[in-house]
Write a structure and sequence with these properties.
Elements lengths: L10 H9 L8 E4 L7 H15 L4 E5 L2 E3 L2 E4 L8 H15 E2 L4 E6 L7 E6 L8 E2 L6 E6 L2 E4 L2 H30 L14 E7 L31 E5 L2 E8 L2 E9 L4 E5 L6 E2 L2 E4 L1 H22 L5 E7 L6 E2 L17 E2 L3 E3 L6 H15 L21
Parallel strand pairs: 1-2, 17-19
Antiparallel strand pairs: 2-7, 3-4, 5-8, 6-7, 8-9, 9-10, 11-15, 11-18, 12-13, 13-14, 14-15, 16-17, 18-20, 18-21
Helix pairs in contact: 5-6
């Protein structure tokens, strides 16, 4: 696999493959020609692409001639309409595999000669993926010799891995909530048991032994603030990685824990613990705006660490019984009190860091309003955009 971002790959990188006889293997394969429109060509193409997704990901490079697996020249591709060709391949992949995979296609322009084309497939954490084109029903994986059909034991292992990753993520979330309930936190939080907990958990973190240099943020504190900053914040190295927090002698209002496996846990202890006229209310504007903004911060941290999506985003509200939705500025309507002790809201799987936070979080916010007997959050417009409010 070419160890560069796809958008950074250029002609010199392809020349390097030939000059150094980088042979085909588990993460790279060469093709002289693009797949045609015959059923056989499409099935072969889908088998190649899915084999990368079912293993460790890789690059399928078209326009390179090979001999016994080694690249010997770059004749390139005669593309009358490169964009149309990219769309054709995109359609074949999206329609021919189940479940869908994460991939990208790029045409590599070359000076004075024909271009090449790369299909980069990411390793999938919801594998295995099968070829379903025209009734085809096979699963493929890869080793150093190339792709091969998966056998029964390999399929069983792949399905078990996908299930175990989901179970391990949910167990991690439950364990963290239990520790918060027992005040086993990286820093001491202010009095009051109601907490807002935001978890961003990469699937890759629970299917291997990935480790990231989270300690570098101890020297870059401005890039990793807690969800509530107050007048400032500090950082502290701990066994799990690094925690940033704000607060004083009476405890912290918020902290963010950066785990070495790329997971990030953000907790605040202020929003739901303010008693107003004997009632605890949900300051929905502050809460929704705060979480929306902070999700962007978390994604920026994970991108800088080199974390790869998909990311599981989860929101939990603790000690919620009796909470009411705060009234609007021009209304006394508060809805009913929440009867649940905790709101452990469903996880959302995010396929890209570029996905709008409002799209990710709106279904979660709607459930909080549902718990107060409202049909949905009142703070989104008809297009799903969060309505900005002056002062927030």
């Amino acid at each position: 696999m070419i160890h560069k971002k796809l958008e950074e790959i250029g002609e010199s990188d392809l020349d390097h493959l030939v000059a150094n006889s980088v042979t085909e293997g588990k993460t790279i394969e060469y093709k002289k020609l693009l797949p045609g429109n015959s059923d056989g060509d499409k099935k072969e193409f889908l088998a190649d692409v899915s084999s990368f997704a079912n293993t460790t990901g890789g690059d399928l490079i078209f326009g390179i001639d090979e001999a016994q697996g080694a690249p010997v020249g770059i004749p390139g591709l005669a593309l009358s309409d490169p964009d149309l060709e990219v769309r054709r391949l995109d359609g074949i992949i999206n329609d021919g595999l189940e479940p869908r995979i994460r991939f990208a296609i790029r045409v590599i322009q070359r000076s004075g000669t024909l271009p090449a084309l790369i299909v980069r497939t990411e390793r999938s954490w919801i594998a295995p993926h099968r070829v379903i084109f025209k009734g085809h029903d096979k699963f493929f994986a890869r080793n150093s010799a190339g792709k091969y059909p998966m056998d029964v034991s390999e399929l069983r292992s792949a399905f078990t891995l996908a299930t175990s990753v989901t179970e391990r993520i949910r167990q991690f979330r439950e364990d963290r909530i239990a520790k918060l309930h027992s005040n086993k936190t990286p820093v001491t939080l202010v009095a009051g048991n109601s907490r807002t907990i935001l978890h961003c958990i990469p699937l890759e973190s629970f299917s291997g032994t990935v480790q990231y240099d989270v300690l570098k943020f101890s020297q870059q504190a401005a890039k990793a603030p807690p969800i509530i900053t107050g007048s400032g914040w500090s950082s502290r190295i701990n066994l799990d990685g690094l925690a940033t927090y704000c607060g004083g002698a009476n405890g912290s209002m918020a902290y963010t824990q950066l785990f070495r496996n790329g997971t990030i846990e953000a907790v605040e202890a202020y929003w739901f613990n303010v008693n107003r006229n004997g009632k605890r209310t949900i300051p929905h504007i502050a809460v929704e705006q705060g979480i929306l903004r902070y999700l962007t911060t978390i994604f920026s941290i994970q991108k800088e660490l080199g974390v790869s999506p998909p990311i599981v985003v989860a929101v939990t509200l603790t000690e919620t019984r009796g909470l009411e939705m705060a009234s609007d500025v021009f209304s006394f309507d508060r809805g009913n009190q929440i009867i649940e002790d905790n709101l452990i809201l469903p996880e959302m799987v995010v396929e890209s860091f570029d996905e709008p936070p409002s799209k990710i979080l709106r279904p979660i916010f709607d459930l909080v309003w549902n718990a107060c007997r409202y049909a949905k959050s009142k703070k989104f417009d008809d297009h799903g955009n969060w309505i900005q409010h002056q002062g927030y």
